[in-house]
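[User] Once you have settled down, look closely at the record that follows, and write a paragraph about the fold.
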Amino acid sequence: MSSDDVSEEYEEEEKLPYLGEYEGDRNEEGERHGYGKAILPNGDKYEGQYEHGKRHGKGTYKFKNGARYIGEYQENKKHGQGTFFYADGSQYEGDWVNDERHGFGVYRYPNNDTYTGEWFAGQRHGQGTYLYAETGSKYVGTWVNGQQEGTGELIHLQHRYQGKFMGKNEEEEGEEEEAVKPPVPIWKAKKIAPLALYTPPLPEVPPQSDISPAQEEPQTSGVGEKVTTQPPADYSEADELDAEKKAKENLESLMMEELKQAGSTEEEERERNSQSSN
């Protein structure tokens, strides 16, 4: 039970040795009624409206640990619109019902994360948006009993996930003075894209040896004699040599034929010259 609840359990002021201090209006029955200021026996302080001895209407309640509530009360319960500043630095601003966050509200966490949406019985419940301050990501979707559950969307700076989320068990939120732990989303993808199969690289072919077959070590036969390994005949090269040889022979034959023709022509010319001189 919180200090807020305990502080006003002292209803019959005459029967207790110390009931704190009160300064303000009272009704004919001597009850706190109207506007007043109170220092409660546990050290908390309240300033605001009373009705028949109970906090009722607008008021400010300050806890001795530094937390405070500014808002509406109904019969000692936070009820209506109100803002709670927690001792750890977090803050809730929104609707309250029967001392619990209930309706629509905004919760700012100590790490600057924020939740904006619906609440039910003190927990995130219904439609809401949770913004992660560190990454800039946010969850927009359905909440059930403080958990991300149902249809939702997790939006990042460069991409987003859409699908159905499954809740994760987490500790319930404590009393007003305790911190509320940020939720951790667990999402179940609606669509799954196929992955490309990995293709291993082809093995490299080792380079051929620079040593020619003729330079390899000679092998020995069974009786100790060296066996010389001869390279295979290159028939294509032999054919080219034969062709060159034939071409050379043909060329020499033509040259001899031309020389013979030239010699016979000169001899005929000399004979004609000798005959003409005679």
About this structure: Residues 235-277 form the longest helix (43 residues). The longest strand covers residues 54-62. The two ends are 163 Å apart (CA to CA).
